[in-house]
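task queued by scheduler; priority normal; single chain, no ligands, no partner chains; default sampling; output format set to structure tokens
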Amino acid sequence: MLERRFKDQEDQLSVVEVPGVSRTRGQAWGNAEPYERQAAKLLQKIVSAELVGVLRYTAFSMLVSGPHRLTLIPFFKQQATESLLHAQEAGNLITGLDGDFRLEVPDVVHSGSLSVYELLKESYAHESEAILLYKALLEETGGKSVYLEEYARNQVAQEEQHRLELRKLLRDFRDEAST
């Protein structure tokens, strides 16, 4: 009896009722707005980029050496944790838009250098790429979805703040690298 009741509820849940949209889960986009499709594609790129950040920053926390190691390990670990949170948020938005979420992590490009300066330069480049992706999302959703627009705007602000922090660190370590 309990199994049958659950089966009935499961059958009822398979149809998603949205005004103006009649479809079942897993079908194509139905009547989704074109900007939602484009936003989901951009969010997929963001998930991939943020997952690369998780791998990059985790590796950097293990690779960093020298007198600044004790301060840079927590910094890189914090950046890895934040990248994971950003990937999760973007992934949740994709599925909320009924987008086609795919777990795709491109190769992590690393210069091979273990100098703190080079690790920070790679981090700066990573943050710059993230800013471009979030700005593209902001441009796509601007004036169309307040929620997605604000999400993108907040992410741009966070990534720009990280880039400024890295710029300061690079300035300090550039001087050390040149001596």
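post-processing summary
- Strands lie at 15-18, 21-24.
- Confidence is low (pLDDT under 50) at residues 9-27.
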